[in-house]
Amino acid sequence: MINKISKIHHSGLMLLFLGFFVFGCTTIQPVIKGKQPLDPNIFPNERFDRVLQKYVNERGLVDYTALRKDPEDLEAYYYRITAYSPDSHPDLFPSEKHKLAYWINAYNAGAIKTVMTYYPISSVLDVKQPGIFFFLSDKSGFFFFQRLTFGGKSTSLYYLENQVIRKRFKDPRIHFAVNCASIGCPRLPRRSFSGEALDQQLDNEARFFLTEERNFKINHDEKVIFLSSIFKWYEKDFTSWYTAKYPGRESSLLSYIELYLTPEKIEELTKIGNGYSLRFAPYDWRLNDQKS
Prior knowledge:
This protein is mainly alpha-helical.
């Protein structure tokens, strides 16, 4: 009987917690309403492409001030991803690559839309969670408590990244493509991802990511290899993929990284051997704003 009462009490607390959670979330609605007819064969990204080409520079920084004055393309694209997804309309996504391209674009557009909802801010950390959840990470206000809609289903950026993109596709190159609206993130590309070109696009972003010293740098004076914190947070994604792809080879972060380095950098790493330690750079959560 005590166990039964304990279970009832526990269930009640869980329901209360979920109620507070739902109450504390903010649903980010599309501004544009009404139907927008789609090509019956494939999901269109032209409106998002226009946003990226007009308001994102070569470094991947966004001109949020100008975008705020001209949000039509962003709002039109967000409306489309709220209405359509590979889960709700699978016929629009003929392959797994088309599905993954959609989810990456949806995450990146959703992050921009969330920033625009609260702009001006200087960091995603400025979007606060409800006070009753003070014990959660200071990133939870932006990534947990903002509810975006994809194909009619309301969810968070955290869930989208970890339970959809990472869980379904098992491709660590996504960590060079998904942009969380922060300077520490991979750059935001100036074109959307497409199913037809996805492999090449992901390879390009991986290579570019590793050309930036903020993400990969060899310090010979200190005998240290500095890496982005992304490699620390998602180390298993990289090493597990490498083990599956190259059974019998030694799997490590550096063995994965070498796949996307220039021949000169590979030679430099080979000469180092195991004599250098790894150190992970602090993540820069400042907003990826051109005004920064």
